[in-house]
Amino acid sequence: MALYESISFLEFQNTYNSEEKCRDKLFKMKWPDGFTCPHCGNNSYYFHSIRGLYQCQQCGYQASVTSGTIMHKTRTPLVKWFWIIYLLSNDKRGMSTLELSKKLELRYATAWSIVHKIRTAMRDRDSQYKLNGIIEIDETFIGRSSKGNSKKGRGSEKIPVVVSIATKGDSMLFAKMRVVKSVNKDEIKKILSETIPAGMTLKTDGLQVYASLSDEMDYEHDRIIISKTGKNAHELLKWVHIISGNVKAWLNGTFHGIDKKHLQLYLDEFCYRLNRRFFGNQIFDRLLKACVVAKGITYAELTG
Ligand SMILES: [Zn+2]
């Protein structure tokens, strides 16, 4: 059996159209080898259909398929959760919370909270991966420029974001974006140490904050003084420029501007989908899995 289920739009519609079917799916993800009591490890259970709980036949513990997941204690039907996860995983443009709340007949605040939790699961999943290979790093600034405010100057409302992209040959592998207070050496070093293993090759422009990184940290460093090359930045750091352009277009197109406070989570959502662009119809199953294991604790972890 493949690790992840591949499911088309039509199959999704026909498969996850009842609470029972959604619950069965979560059951299979949570307990792939059959029910295991989170309390005593026993495998036999009674099912309480009214409350949707699985009661251990040995110790009486009542387990739910949503405990330890981002759906824990939700009052929103699982069918709606599944739809939101499906739509967020599949639509390259993403979908605004307002649109989702209308489509799925949810209060805006409820839809917002669900989307927020899904974005957090995306973030947690991607944070498990480090960048390997040749890594392009550059800063970009996201947000509206403050036109007509000459005192503050153009760009004063823009939020600095450090973009790192693992590349191989002419293709990009994996992207990460991090909102920073300002682009300074300490911030850059912190991001590098958290996301890039030692020994990798960094590719940056000649900006001073990137100077001497290879002396201070265990990286190879290809620092390009763009003005000396006769080429422009788009050619030298191709992928960070393409992806930075894409994320800005996505934010403007889908959200018509952004709430600064939540920019990081929007970026996490963008990177999550980007990093899984070749997974086709597996993308729903993968994201559902990320939501199920989000804050899950396995029986082994509990007792180990
Ligand atoms: Zn038990």
Describe it.
The protein has 304 residues and is of the alpha/beta class. Helix 5 (108-126) packs across helix 11. It has helices spanning 9-15, 19-30, 78-90, 97-103, 108-126, 185-195, 213-216, 226-229, 233-236, 238-255, 263-275, 283-292, 299-303, and strands at residues 45-48, 53-56, 62-63, 134-142, 159-168, 171-179, 201-205, 220-224. The protein is elongated, with a radius of gyration of 22 Å. The longest helix has 19 residues, at 108-126. The model is unreliable at 148-155 and 296-304 (pLDDT under 50). The chain folds into 2 domains: 9-127 and 279-299, no CATH class; 134-258, Ribonuclease H-like superfamily/Ribonuclease H (Nucleotidyltransferase, domain 5). A 5-stranded mixed β-sheet has the order 6-5-4-7-8, sandwiched between helices. Strands 1-2-3 form a 3-stranded antiparallel β-sheet, with no helix packed on it. The structure holds zinc ion. Zinc ion binds next to loops.
Neighbour order of strands in the largest sheet: 6-5-4-7-8
Total strand segments: 8
Helix content: 40-55%
Structural class: alpha/beta
N-C termini distance? 28 Å
List keywords for this structure.
304 residues; alpha/beta; Nucleotidyltransferase, domain 5; 2 domains; five-stranded mixed beta sheet; three-stranded antiparallel beta sheet; 13 helices; 42% helix; 16% strand; disordered C terminus; binds zinc ion
Short structural summary:
This protein is α/β, with parallel strands linked by helices and 304 residues long. 42% of the residues lie in helices and 16% in strands.
